[in-house]
From TrEMBL:
The keyword Cell membrane applies. The keyword Lipid metabolism does not apply. This is Multidrug resistance efflux pump. One of its GO terms (cellular component) is plasma membrane. It is found in: Cell membrane. One of its GO terms (molecular function) is transmembrane transporter activity. It comes from Lacticaseibacillus nasuensis JCM 17158. Keywords: Cell membrane, Membrane, Transmembrane, Transmembrane helix, Transport.
Length: 403
C-alpha cells in the first residue's frame, strides 16, 4: 500500500495543487476590480474611452489564451504537465510584474496578451490530477481541485481591494507576481509526476481534427467542449451587470457596493461546498446523471433571477447558482477525462481551456449588449434559455449521457 502511494502520490499532488490553484485564483482575480481604474490612470481619457480600452485589456488575455492553449497542451503531452505548471506560473509572474511598470495603455494591452501566452496553470493542474488519479476517484478529485481556484477567485477581489487601498494599484501587480512565483516554486518542489512522454506518432495532429482522431467517441468530446463554452458564456454574461442589477433592486440606496460584493461571492461559497460531493456522487452513480441534473437545475435558478424584486431572493438564487456550477464544470472535465486516452489528457484540457476562454469573451459581449439594449433582467432570461438549448443539444446528440 505504501509503495503504491509512493509510485502514484495523487493525494499529495491534489493537496499541493489545491493550494497552488487557490493562490493562482487569487492572483488572477485580485487585479480585476480596479483594472479599469488603472487604465484611467494611464492617460487623459474620456469615460467612453476608458470603457473601450478596459474592454480591450480585459479581452486580450482570453483571446490569446484561446489561441495558444492547444499548443501548450500538445507540448505538455510530450514534455510533461509539471514543467507546464512551472512555465505558466513564472511566465505570468513576469507579465504581472511588468504590468506594474507600464506607462501607457498599449503597454498594458501587450502585457495582458503576454499573460494569455503564458496561461494554462489551472488547466495543467487539472490535467496532471486527471492523468494520475485512479479513474474511480477522478470525479471527487477534480471536484475538489476546482474548489481551490474557485475559492481563490472568490477571495481575490476582496484581497486586491484591500491591497490597492493600503498600497497602490501598481504595488498590487507586484504582490500578484510574487503570489504566482510562490505557486511556481511549490509546483517545482512538491509536485511529483511520473511522466512517460507520449510518442510523437501517438500524439500526431495537434489541431482539433487530429486530436479527435484519438477518441472512440469524438462527437461526445465536441459536445463537451461546446458545453464548456456555453456554461462559461452564461456565467460571464452575468458578471458585468450583477452589481448594476443590485443597484437597481436597492433603488440606489444603502450600501450598494457591499451588498453587490456579497451577492457576487455567494455562488463561489456554495460551489466550494457542492463540487466535491457532486463529483463523488458522479463517480458512484454516473457523471452523465450529474451533468443533466446540473443543467436542469441551472435553468431553474437562472430564469427567476430576471423577475425578482427582492435583493434577498436574488441572493438566495445566486447561492443556488454555485451548486449548478459545481455540477457542470467539474463533471464536464470528469467526462472528458474518462473518455480520453492517456495520449490526449493534457491537450484535451487545453482545448477545454480554449473553449472556456471563448465563453469568457462572448459572454462579456453578450451580457453588456443585452443589458444595454433591453435591460438587466433580459440577461438572466437569455442565460437560462441558452443553458436550456445546451441541455437539449446534449440530450438529443449524446444519448449515452442519459445512462
Amino acid at each position: 500500500m505504501d509503495q503504491s502511494r509512493e509510485q502514484n502520490p495523487w493525494r499529495r499532488n491534489l493537496r499541493v495543487l489545491w493550494f497552488c490553484t487557490f493562490v493562482a485564483g487569487i492572483a488572477f482575480s485580485e487585479i480585476m476590480p480596479f483594472m479599469s481604474l488603472y487604465v484611467g490612470e494611464l492617460g487623459n481619457f474620456t469615460k467612453s474611452q476608458v470603457s473601450f480600452y478596459s474592454g480591450l485589456v480585459y479581452a486580450a488575455t482570453f483571446l490569446v489564451t484561446a489561441i495558444v492553449s492547444p499548443l501548450w497542451g500538445a507540448l505538455a503531452d510530450r514534455k510533461g504537465r509539471k514543467i507546464m505548471l512551472i512555465r505558466a506560473a513564472f511566465g505570468m509572474a513576469a507579465a504581472m510584474f511588468l504590468m506594474g511598470l507600464v506607462t501607457n495603455v498599449w503597454q498594458l494591452l501587450g502585457l495582458r496578451a503576454l499573460q494569455g501566452v503564458f496561461s494554462g496553470f489551472i488547466s495543467n493542474a487539472q490535467a496532471l490530477i486527471a492523468s494520475q488519479t485512479p479513474r474511480q476517484h477522478s470525479g471527487r478529485a477534480l471536484g475538489t481541485l476546482v474548489t481551490g481556484s474557485t475559492s481563490g477567485m472568490l477571495m481575490g477581489p476582496i484581497i486586491g481591494g484591500v491591497l490597492a487601498q493600503l498600497f497602490s494599484i501598481r504595488h498590487t501587480f507586484f504582490i500578484t507576481a510574487a503570489l504566482l512565483a510562490v505557486a511556481g516554486l511549490l509546483s517545482a518542489f512538491f509536485v511529483t509526476e511520473h511522466f512517460v512522454p507520449i510518442r510523437r506518432d501517438a500524439a500526431a495532429g495537434t489541431g482539433l481534427k487530429g486530436l479527435l482522431g484519438q477518441f472512440t467517441n469524438p462527437k461526445l468530446i465536441i459536445v463537451l467542449l461546446l458545453s464548456t463554452m456555453f456554461v462559461q458564456l452564461g456565467n460571464t454574461s452575468i458578471a458585468p451587470i450583477i452589481s448594476l442589477y443590485v443597484k437597481e433592486l436597492m433603488h440606489n440606496a444603502g450600501a450598494v457596493a457591499l451588498v453587490a460584493g456579497i451577492i457576487a461571492a455567494l455562488p463561489g461559497i456554495s460551489n466550494i461546498l457542492a463540487a466535491p460531493r457532486l463529483g463523488a456522487y458522479g463517480d458512484k452513480h454516473g457523471s452523465g446523471r450529474v451533468l443533466i441534473a446540473g443543467y436542469l437545475f441551472a435553468v431553474l435558478v437562472y430564469l427567476p433571477q430576471g423577475f425578482v424584486t427582492s435583493i434577498w431572493l436574488l441572493g438566495g438564487l445566486r447561492l443556488l447558482v454555485g451548486i449548478s456550477d459545481g455540477a457542470l464544470f467539474p463533471t464536464i472535465q470528469t467526462l472528458l477525462t474518462k473518455n480520453s486516452p492517456a495520449s490526449a489528457t493534457s491537450v484535451i484540457f487545453s482545448w477545454n481551456q480554449s473553449f472556456q476562454a471563448l465563453g469568457n469573451m462572448f459572454g462579456s459581449l453578450l451580457g453588456g449588449s443585452l443589458a444595454g439594449a433591453f435591460g438587466y433582467n433580459v440577461v438572466f432570461i437569455s442565460t437560462a434559455s441558452l443553458l436550456l438549448i445546451n441541455f437539449l443539444f446534449l440530450w438529443f446528440t449524446e444519448p449515452s449521457l442519459r445512462k
